[in-house]
Specification:
The structure holds two protein chains of two kinds.
Chain A (H helix, E strand, L loop, with lengths): L4 E3 L4 H16 L24 E13 L23 E8 L5 H5 L12 E4 L3 E10 L13 E3 L23 E6 L5 E6 L4 H6 L3 E7 L27 E10 L1 H8 L13 E4 L31 E4 L3 E8 L5 E5 L4 E6 L2 E2 L10 E3 L1 E4 L4 E7 L4 E7 L16 E7 L13
Parallel strand pairs in A: 2-5, 4-9, 10-13, 12-21
Antiparallel strand pairs in A: 1-2, 2-3, 5-7, 6-8, 8-9, 10-11, 13-19, 14-18, 14-20, 15-16, 15-17, 15-19, 20-21
Chain B lengths: L5 H21 L16 E2 L5 E12 L5 E9 L10 E5 L3 E8 L16 E2 L2 E2 L3 E2 L5 E3 L10 E7 L4 E6 L4 H7 L2 E7 L20 E9 L1 H8 L13 E4 L25 E3 L11 E7 L5 E5 L4 E6 L2 E2 L10 E3 L2 E3 L4 E6 L31 E2 L19 E2 L6 E7 L6 E2 L2 E2 L4 E6 L8
Parallel strand pairs in B: 1-4, 2-5, 4-12, 13-16, 15-28, 23-24
Antiparallel strand pairs in B: 2-3, 5-10, 6-7, 6-10, 8-9, 11-12, 13-14, 16-22, 17-21, 17-25, 18-19, 18-20, 18-22, 25-28, 26-27
Classes of the chains: A mainly beta, B mainly beta.
């Protein structure tokens, strides 16, 4: 997990000027008179340089671990080619920001799933460099890779990562994508090269954009908000991003064993939050750069949700599986405030927030959901498609995690998402 | 022998290729009617709102070379086409649809979302066989030569399916479906009665989504039994076509039975010069949800199942989407624009990262590209590797739009196909004809 390196390149005066402009935006949310003007154009004056962020991702293959003790799916899982401690072949991204060229090359064969969790501030000039390290297990495959920022509204084709419509990155080369996010919310990113294969193989992650309103406006104090809501209704104390995916073990095996797959036979075997299946979902965040992280080293993102009673908890839900899933939380009311990186409000400002206990989320969709942490205790959050609560067909597992609520004041303030 | 440097050879070798592509793109096919738009929704209208449809069989072409036996609705006594014609009427008018049946079994049409449908003057009724088993959801036309006349008053403005109600599991899969567009009275420039549903009438699109299990079609063609527990869709279609056929023009003559394309063709949003959104009407004639993902732009969901997204007091309850999940039988209407947010320009505002040289990028994969090798809208096409076909005419942009249940974005498992199309964005001044 990563917050990208951020280089403050903005003076206090410039920041104030920009924030004033954005404040004007924030108090006029989603209210264009034109049918399509639901978001005013960016109001940052061009004279004010945007803050910048840069990030270096590497794309490669590797081996990860599904929950131990699940019944085998012979001959596909556990994969007999897997090194000790691993059992499933994947493709994935690595965060190699700041590493030397030699160190970056050394990450070949060390893919992680889900991809690094990325968070950026609105109106940041973002450069994401992608290096294609090739595939250690399949040197015969000369696949390119790309970064597709899924849902990004302002990407020109060059930066959209669809190889047929722009370019992809050959093995041993790199390319820098540029993004300037004008719209807060929860997005995804994934490789779009032969996407049915590369997405299934694990090249998926969550990227989110924090609203300019976080700096405070005339109407709302500085804080953590999901959107430029203008009234503080999307404020939260803690945030947890959950990427929903499925793993079709047979296809992973075929990729490792130089066989082809008919994707219309799709039949997933594992169901994951952030690349892990229950009970691994509960394990703490790991360090993908450290062997000490153990069996889940290449699945470093925890799905364990922790909060103090009474706190507002944001769930950033994204689905890059190929099937619909329905997230439910026992004993907790869920307030859906956003879909697909857009505040749920009509063009005339009418609120469309919805209180519910199930959130259905289709492939490629995202939802922003806030709940208030109830009395101290453990609450379950899981996929109400109960067939997804299985690991390789065995019971108990899959897309399930816990919400652990402590007495008020127990946990210190959250410093980063999913922590 | 002429001595030419390698680059010049490359450039020269591209000339006939580009000429051929331009010729294909520019010269209309012989079957292209002057009244047909090259892209976009094509209405079948009738002065008295009376339509004749014939249920008939024929063949649909898949991009991988497979040919599928289908059933669908032909206009009048015309030739087989998939899907049936798009019937366009105005809300409140009396609509008559005469169904003629040339299929070897009874068939029918249901009109989901329309109320009080009459069949031959009587309320349309489910049918049962002698044993009391339900055989049709609605009144049928008899096999081979039967006909039935349905009448109803067009309901609220919006987008509706029409489809077979007889042995519907099989017949709808066979292709007996089409779209019914009901326009608001007095406001054909709107999707519904709300002023904020206005759209550019030259930018109206219909995505009738479906799927094909070729085994079922083969069984029907060979008059064999089919076990629906073995049902497995292998092709995923928009308007009866799969990518790349989806981006071919309407009435492309190499797709004689699949007349409707799905290429979106727009210009960047401009508050003065191009202020109105495109309208996209999604319909799901298949058996699973199709999570449709347009790149490069979100879409405002303004209506579902023929009803505007609004509150009881008329509040606007439309919402923004980058993923439109259309459930079986549902229709969803969205407004869409594309904003040139950054206005990248090689002189005044160049992209802030270098475009890699040709040897540092992969163009394709596959034999074609829709990228001009130039990041700028309207820019001159750059050089391509030998053998790659350039589909870019004038520096226009292309974004993809596809099902994000990614196995549906394949042709029988093969990538960059299936339920997928392109959004073409021309430079603000347009492309020269």
């Amino acid at each position: 997990m990563t917050d990208p390196v951020r280089q403050p390149s903005i003076s206090r005066r410039a920041l104030l000027a920009g924030v004033t402009g954005l404040g004007t935006w924030a108090v006029l949310p989603e209210r264009g008179s034109d049918a399509q003007l639901r978001r005013p154009a960016a109001v940052l004056p061009r004279a004010v340089p945007n803050p910048t962020a840069s990030l270096h991702l590497a794309a490669t293959d590797g081996w990860v671990s599904m929950p131990q003790g699940a019944p085998p799916i012979s001959p596909f899982w556990p994969d007999p080619l897997a090194p000790a401690g691993a059992d499933l072949y994947v493709f994935g991204f690595r965060d190699v920001t700041g590493l030397s060229a030699t160190e970056v090359t050394a990450q070949r064969g060390k893919a992680q799933i889900s991809a690094p969790l990325l968070g950026f501030d609105q109106e940041t000039d973002i450069r994401i460099t992608l290096t294609n390290l090739g595939l250690s297990v399949r040197p015969d495959l000369t696949d390119g890779h790309t970064v597709h920022w899924h849902g990004f509204r302002n990407a020109i084709p060059l930066f959209d990562g669809v190889p047929e419509l722009s370019i992809s990155v050959p093995i041993g080369r790199d390319f820098t994508y540029f993004y300037r996010p004008h719209d807060a919310g929860t997005y995804m990113y994934h490789c779009h090269f032969e996407d049915v294969e590369h997405v299934q193989m694990g090249m998926t992650g969550i990227v989110y954009v924090r609203p300019a309103q976080n700096a405070g406006t005339a109407d709302v104090p500085p804080g953590k908000y999901v959107y430029n809501d203008g009234d503080g209704t999307t404020r939260y104390d803690r945030e947890f991003a959950l990427m929903l995916t499925e793993v079709w073990a047979e296809a992973h095996y075929r990729d490792a064993h130089i066989q082809t797959t008919d994707w219309t036979d799709y039949k997933p075997s594992f169901f994951a939050f952030n690349g892990r299946c229950h009970p691994d979902t509960l394990a703490p965040n790991g360090d993908p750069m450290s062997a000490a992280a153990g069996r889940l080293r290449y699945q470093p993102i925890s799905s364990l949700i922790t909060a103090n009673a009474g706190e507002r908890v944001l769930l950033r839900l994204a689905n890059l599986g190929y099937q619909n899933h329905t997230v439910t939380a026992d004993g907790v009311d869920l307030l859906v405030v956003g879909k697909d990186a857009a505040l749920l409000r009509g063009r005339d400002g009418s609120a469309e927030y919805q209180v519910t206990n199930t959130v259905q989320i289709g492939p490629g969709e995202s939802r922003d959901v806030i709940f208030t942490a109830p009395d101290p205790g453990t609450y379950l959050l899981y996929d109400r498609d109960l067939m997804s609560l299985a690991n390789a067909g065995g019971g108990r597992g899959g897309q399930l995690t816990e919400i652990r609520v402590s007495p008020p004041g127990t946990l210190p303030a959250q410093t980063r998402a999913n922590a | 022998m002429l001595r030419l440097d390698r680059g010049r050879w490359k450039r020269l070798s591209a000339v006939p290729l580009v000429a051929a592509i331009v010729a294909v793109l520019v010269v209309p096919g012989p079957s292209q009617s002057t009244a047909s738009p090259p892209a976009g929704l094509e209405c079948l209208t009738a002065g008295d709102n009376a339509f004749e449809l014939t249920a008939t069989g024929g063949y649909a072409a898949m991009p991988d070379g497979n040919t599928i036996y289908m059933w669908s609705y032909a206009a009048g006594g015309g030739a087989f086409q998939l899907p049936g014609p798009t019937l366009c009427v105005t809300s409140g008018v009396k609509v008559t649809v005469v169904l003629h049946n040339s299929l070897p079994e009874p068939t029918s049409i249901t009109f989901p979302g329309q109320v009080q449908v009459l069949a031959d003057g009587q309320p349309a009724q489910p049918e049962t066989d002698a044993a009391g088993t339900l055989t049709s959801l609605t009144t049928t036309a008899a096999a081979n030569t039967g006909s039935v006349t349905y009448t109803f008053t067009a309901g609220p403005p919006g987008t509706y399916l029409y489809q077979s109600g007889t042995d519907a599991q099989k017949q709808v899969q066979m292709g007996l479906y089409g779209a019914l567009v009901v326009r608001p009275a007095g406001h054909p420039e709107r999707e519904n009665d709300r002023a904020d549903s206005a759209f550019d009438r030259d930018r109206e699109y219909l995505y009738l989504l479906g799927e094909i299990d070729p085994d079922l079609h083969l069984a029907v063609e060979r008059k064999r039994a089919y076990d629906f527990t073995r049902y497995k869709a292998r092709y995923f279609t928009i308007n009866g076509r799969s990518m790349p056929d989806t981006i071919a023009p309407n009435h492309a003559d190499w797709l004689p039975a699949q007349p409707y394309g799905a290429l979106i063709h727009i210009r960047p949003y401009d508050p003065v010069g191009n202020p109105k959104p495109a309208l996209i009407r999604y319909l799901n004639a298949g058996s699973v949800s199709y999570p449709f993902h347009p790149h490069g732009s979100d879409e405002q969901l303004i209506a579902r199942d023929g009803r505007p997204a609004q509150g009881p007091g008329g509040q606007d309850l439309s919402y923004s989407n980058f993923l439109i999940d259309v459930a079986p039988g549902q229709t969803v209407d969205t407004l869409m624009i594309w904003k040139d947010a950054e206005h990248w320009d090689p002189q005044g505002n160049p992209i802030p990262v270098p475009l890699p040289s040709l040897q540092d990028q992969i163009v394709g994969p596959g034999p074609e590209t829709w990228f001009a090798e130039n990041p700028y809208l309207g820019g001159e096409p750059g050089e391509l590797p030998p053998g790659v076909v350039q589909n870019n005419q004038c520096g226009e942009y292309y974004h993809v739009a596809h099902s994000h249940a990614l196995e549906q974005a394949t042709n029988y498992g093969a990538s960059f196909g299936g339920m997928m199309t392109l959004i073409r964005i021309d430079p603000p001044a347009g492309c020269p004809a």
